[in-house]
Amino acid sequence: SPDGKWIVFEKWYKNNQKNGEIYVMDIEGQNLKRLTENIDVYDGYPCWFPDSRTVLFSSEVEGVFKLFTVDIETGEVEQITFGEGNDQRADVSPDGKKIVFNRTIDDNVNIYEMDLKKKFN
Q: What is the rounded radius of gyration, in angstroms, for the C-alpha atoms of the chain?
């Protein structure tokens, strides 16, 4: 995390190729916390917002990949992309006001930039 206190990572659950989940732990490898629990759905590509409290990730929860945020303290999850195509491999701007991500539609991959309504800095 930007504050140097947490590590976010993706872990395969029970060696199921369709069930990656998002976890955090402190930098000593303690206080493991599972942030997603979408059985038989892939959650992956996690990255931090500058607030060191919010994680951005991609989830296939609706049959296509969309981007979500999760608050590591409250566990509150919010979907932030919608519409056609698969949204993956996102990253957050240093000020927490924008994200960039890949959107794949009909095997065409394009890079998108999106302004966020909520500020995560």
A: 14
Cα separation of 36 and 70, whole Å?
A: 8
Question: Cα separation of 80 and 69, whole Å?
Answer: 7
Q: Report pTM.
A: 0.90
How does pLDDT run across 89-104, given as a tens digit for each residue? Answer: 999 999 999 999 999 9
Give the span between the Cα atoms of 113 and 76, in whole angstroms: 24
